Amino acid sequence: MNDREFLDVIYRYAEYVKRAPLSQAERERIITEFNSAQGDPYTKAREAVRKVLGLSQLIEGMRKTADLDNTQRLLQDLMNAANQWQAAKNKK
């Protein structure tokens, strides 16, 4: 998985939680926060989205049971993408 594909997965998760498209500034902040976060790529991605959108946005985005299922699926997609991205980076 290349950088662009990984970012697309992060942005898809963030837009779902936000319930709206990300602005260019939010996309850039997610990249900045990701690069400065500690941990594995999955943790860094979740932390970046949390910081950029704010914790209250994340809580608001998970109010309904159906939303929890969708959020869990998107988090699983994010974890899989993070693992693939890290594996690709390790091969270089």
Q: Work out the count of structural domains.
A: 1
Topology order in helix (H) and strand (E) letters = HHHHH
Task: Give the uncertain stretches in residue-range form.
Answer: none
Overall body shape:
globular
The end-to-end distance, rounded to whole angstroms, is 12 Å
Mean pLDDT: 86
Rounded Rg: 13 Å
Q: Can you summarize the main beta sheet? A: none
Helices and strands: which structural class?
mainly alpha
Count of β-strands: 0
Give the amount of beta strand, in percent.
under 5%
Share of helical residues:
over 70%
Report the total helices.
Answer: 5
3D structure, described in words:
This protein is an all-alpha fold and 92 residues long. It is 82% helix and 0% strand. It is built from five helices and no strands. The longest helix has 27 residues, at 65-91.
Write the layout of secondary structure elements.
Layout: H1 3-18, H2 24-36, H3 41-53, H4 55-60, H5 65-91
Helix pairs in contact: 1-3, 1-5, 2-3, 3-5
Brief overview:
By secondary structure, the chain is mostly helical. The protein has helices spanning 3-18, 24-36, 41-53, 55-60, 65-91. The chain has one domain (3-91).
Structural descriptors:
92 residues; globular; mainly alpha; 5 helices
